[in-house]
Amino acid sequence: xxxxxxxxxxxxxxxxxxxxxxxxxxxxxxxxxxxxxxxxxxxxxxxxxxxxxxxxxxxxxxxxxxxxxxxxxxxxxxxxxxxxxxxxxx
Length: 90
Hints:
This protein is mainly alpha-helical. 90% of the residues lie in helices and 0% in strands. Helix 2 (45-65) runs antiparallel to helix 3. The chain folds into two domains: 1-42; 45-90.
């Protein structure tokens, strides 16, 4: 009886962890978008268009590799390197 109770308790804990992890990911993404929007307001039109293009790439990478954090981190690192190279070249 105690064993079945422990299994139910562990299941509840796992569901709770999954819920909060999903919520945290959504909040982090919302903060990133908010920060990006604020930076875009302070830039010229050409830079804004370029930044939107990179934002679209970010969303595609997040959607494609959302369940594979290592792969997503690797792809985002590549994208960040491209962005740095592009924006610091001038």
